[in-house]
Amino acid sequence: MTNNLLVIVSSGNEAPDKAMTGLMYAINAKKNHWLDDVQLMFFGPSEEMVAKSVSDSQLGKVLRQALELGLTPVACKAISDGNHITTELKGLGIETEYVGTIISSYIKKGYQVLTF
Questions:
Q1: How confident is the model at residue 2 (pLDDT cuts 50, 70, 90)?
Q2: How far apart are CA 39 and CA 66, in angstroms?
Q3: Closest CA to 22 of 73, 68, 70
Q4: Which of 5, 42, 67, 91 is exposed most, by the fewest CB atoms within 10 A?
Q5: Backbone dihedral angles phi then psi of residue 99, each to the nearest 5 degrees
Q6: Stretch 55-70: mean pLDDT
């Protein structure tokens, strides 16, 4: 069993509470040192929801908290480019990468994957 976790937030405007739950778990796991390593990824509909969030929204505040804790969120570049939101995501401190190989790499390293 590993003490490393990849949290993938894929829910968007259709289930914002679910997306927030994933984000909050990643933050708390990092802040409270529940695990050795916590990685955070936005994938699919969550990318657009995050890109459209405003800094004073609850989501914006929680995202800033994640960044302040040292989490470096990654979003799928293929999706963000397709939705023309890459610039917005980068402006929020979210890296954009092609995530297929990244996800596979974490799985090969034994990371547990939680999807919200």
A1: confident
A2: 11
A3: 73
A4: 91
A5: -90, -10
A6: 90
Segment 6-38, tens digit of pLDDT: 999 999 999 999 999 999 999 999 999 999 999
Q: Which contiguous run of DSSP H or E holds residue 96?
A: strand 95-97
Whether 67 and 31 have beta carbons less than 8 Å apart is answered as no
What values do phi and psi take at 17, rounded to 5?
-65, -35
Residue 108: strand, helix, or coil? helix
pTM reported for the whole predicted model: 0.93
CA distance 89 to 30: 21
CATH number at 19 reads 3.40.1260.10
pLDDT at 104 over 90: yes
At residue 1, does pLDDT exceed 80? no
Residue in 114, 91, 116 with CA at minimum distance from that of residue 39: 114
C-alpha to C-alpha distance for 72 and 75, rounded to whole angstroms: 10
> Is the pLDDT score of 54 beyond 80?
no
Structural domain of 61: 4-115
Number of domains the chain contains: 1
